[in-house]
Q: What sequence folds into this?
């Protein structure tokens, strides 16, 4: 149903799901080629069948078959009774979906499922009570006082039983309510939510006169805003679709349809056993495969061995009613089973290491013999270790399920087991063995995926390092040449000229060379902090970058810098990179006519430590919260957003240098970023 509702999904995606269930796949093939639906040549592929049927009919078939399987092999239910039940349930389901669509209910498939299940309590009571309940249904098929009669005769109603069953299945409570309330009075149903009202209307219009006063009351006072004419048209379409689906499913529709059948079936002959044990075993194996197939798909989607192990424990509890499960994994040599890497189990399993010797423990015997073993199928007495493990799991005995992937032993699941559970699980040993294989394949696939991921990461790192070294080598040559020419130029210029600017420019080239030279360290190096003059560094940067970043763009610069030097302990290159990234970020955000203010304040005390504050304020467009967060939670270096990347570098280097950052920004009003630079500190070792 999720795939059908996914607009991005294709019929190929749907076919890949259907083909996982042999029963559903074969039914789709037969239905698409049935006389009721076939148009033209025979269809041999699942995808073509799905296209021919359409998603609506496929969805109906899948839902119906899922519920129908619960009762198909029940010997207490005769074919005529089941056919009558299904034809009526299909009609109410089709009506419910139509009513939901007319009322703009957001989940029409939920209404369809509720309609399909609304009388499920009848099958439960037929199974439990047999002929007495069958006769009651015959006499009260058109009786408006059905619930009162049921309670009088049987102490409950099929609506209550159906609602109880759906609660046991753990489905949505509104779905259970719609089943439990479908025979409520018109006055009562008006106080319920939309889904129970939809099912009540669908059930009522399927069995009563169109102009009944109860229906009129509900339509007039319900919030669903439905018109009788639209409901009558929906009823005709639903009857036609129900006949079509019933014929495709092989359900015989009675002549009285859409009325319920009033015939009483002949006594049911005792069912005959399967023709051979081989057929019985085959049915068990196929049933186990169908049961465990969804589990395998779910396990393959998990991302860690911890998640897989937790899922296996929960699956054992749900599928086999085994609440106490411990897991031991094979060591690298494959000669022992250990639980030291597996959490969430009794401490004895965490400390355990069992050698692969069959007479030492049942778990080892199960792995060596490659078969499911239990305490209760052993002729010899259990070892003391097995007794200990059973006591740790609060059980009478043990069930050991080997986890075998191809030729490799992954481990073993050890489950607490009682004699009663043993009797119930004997016929499901093939399922348990398959469960162990699925567990092993899932863990093995995860291990292989992690190894492959690690290999890929190592290869990528190696490639990056190789390319980075090449870039460093290639970039170093022109930078060195430029620096040499600057020295020659400096000697040719008069001493009172632009030598100061050349000195700053040379210093910047050294800084760029240093950055390039550290590319292979990806900003993870631990820079040496020295005492430098903050004011002097800022003046040097303004001398070199004020024109290209601000003046040439028509952006006004206001500065408030002390006339005396302010010593701070910080790596000089890192400080320059932080400041330039902030200025460049502001330059790219501002337009001509806007202003940037650069100010420095001394004697700032924070948490007992002494700082110098450097502030960069602007009256630009402001920054969204996501961009601001990149300062405090730096983005990966691969991020393509230059503005966010620049602030990420500011955040990384500031954290490395022990600088505290405060950022205030308002969209349309501007941004203020304050840096508290420590006057003295011990360099942080964090990257």
A:
């Amino acid at each position: 149903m999720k795939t059908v509702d996914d607009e991005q999904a294709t019929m190929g995606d749907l076919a890949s799901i259907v083909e996982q269930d042999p029963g559903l796949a074969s039914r789709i093939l037969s239905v698409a080629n049935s006389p009721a639906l076939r148009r033209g040549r025979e269809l041999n592929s699942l995808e073509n069948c799905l296209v021919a049927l359409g998603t609506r009919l496929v969805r109906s078939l899948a839902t119906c078959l899922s519920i129908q399987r619960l009762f198909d092999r029940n010997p207490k239910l005769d074919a005529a009774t089941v056919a009558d039940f299904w034809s009526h349930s299909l009609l109410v389901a089709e009506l419910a979906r139509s009513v939901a669509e007319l009322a703009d209910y957001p989940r029409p498939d939920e209404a369809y499922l509720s309609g399909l299940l609304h009388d499920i309590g009848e099958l439960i009571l037929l199974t439990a009570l047999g002929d007495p309940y069958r006769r009651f249904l015959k006499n009260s098929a058109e009786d408006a006082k059905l619930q009162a009669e049921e309670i009088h005769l049987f102490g409950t109603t099929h609506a209550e039983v159906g609602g109880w069953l759906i609660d046991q299945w753990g489905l949505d409570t509104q779905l259970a309510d719609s089943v439990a309330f479908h025979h409520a009075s018109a006055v009562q149903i008006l106080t319920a939510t939309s889904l129970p009202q939809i099912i009540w209307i669908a059930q009522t219009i399927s069995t009563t006169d169109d102009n009944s006063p109860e229906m009129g009351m509900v339509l007039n006072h319900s919030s669903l805003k439905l018109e009788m004419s639209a409901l009558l048209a929906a009823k005709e379409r639903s009857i036609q679709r129900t006949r079509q689906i019933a014929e495709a499913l092989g359900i015989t529709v009675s002549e009285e349809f859409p009325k319920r059948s009033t015939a009483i079936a002949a006594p049911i002959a005792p069912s005959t056993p399967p023709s051979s044990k081989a057929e019985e075993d085959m049915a068990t194996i196929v049933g186990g495969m169908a049961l465990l197939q969804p589990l395998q798909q779910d396990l393959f989607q998990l991302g860690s061995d911890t998640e897989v192990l937790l899922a296996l424990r929960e699956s054992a509890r749900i599928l086999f009613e085994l609440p106490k499960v411990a897991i031991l994994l094979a060591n690298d040599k494959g000669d022992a089973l250990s639980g030291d890497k597996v959490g969430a189990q009794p401490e004895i399993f965490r400390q355990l290491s069992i050698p692969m010797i069959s007479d030492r423990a049942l778990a080892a015997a199960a792995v060596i013999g490659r078969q499911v073993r239990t305490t209760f199928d052993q002729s010899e007495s259990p070892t003391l270790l097995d007794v200990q493990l059973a006591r740790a799991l609060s059980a009478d005995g043990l069930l050991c399920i080997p986890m075998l992937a191809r030729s490799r032993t992954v481990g073993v699941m050890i489950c607490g087991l009682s004699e009663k559970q043993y009797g119930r699980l004997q016929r499901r040993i093939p399922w348990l063995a398959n469960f162990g294989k699925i567990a092993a394949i899932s863990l093995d696939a995860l291990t292989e995926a992690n190894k492959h991921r690690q290999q890929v990461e190592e290869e990528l790192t190696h490639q990056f390092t190789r390319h980075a070294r090449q870039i460093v080598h290639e970039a170093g040559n022109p930078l060195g040449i430029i620096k040499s020419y600057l020295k020659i130029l400096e000697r040719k210029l008069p001493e009172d000229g632009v030598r100061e600017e050349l000195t700053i420019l040379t210093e910047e080239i050294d800084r760029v060379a240093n950055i390039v030279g550290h590319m292979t360290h990806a900003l993870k190096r631990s820079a040496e902090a020295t005492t430098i003059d903050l004011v002097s560094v800022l003046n040097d940067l303004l001398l070199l970058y004020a024109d290209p970043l601000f003046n040439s763009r028509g952006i006004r610069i206001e500065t408030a810098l002390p006339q005396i030097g302010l010593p701070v302990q910080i790596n000089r290159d890192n400080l320059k990179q932080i400041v330039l990234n902030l200025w460049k970020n502001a330059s790219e955000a501002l337009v001509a006519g806007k202003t940037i203010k650069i100010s420095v304040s001394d004697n700032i005390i924070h948490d007992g430590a002494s700082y110098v504050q450097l502030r960069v304020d602007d009256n630009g467009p402001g920054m969204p919260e996501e961009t601001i967060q990149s300062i405090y939670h730096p983005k990966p270096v691969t991020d393509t957003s230059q503005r966010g990347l620049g602030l990420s570098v500011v955040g990384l280097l500031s954290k490395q240098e022990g600088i505290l950052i405060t950022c205030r920004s308002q969209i349309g009003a501007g941004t203020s970023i304050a840096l508290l630079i420590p006057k003295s500190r011990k360099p942080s070792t964090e990257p």
User: Anything to note?
Assistant: The longest strand covers residues 595-606. Confidence is low (pLDDT under 50) at residues 264-275, 522-526, 637-643, 683-687. The longest helix spans residues 429-492.
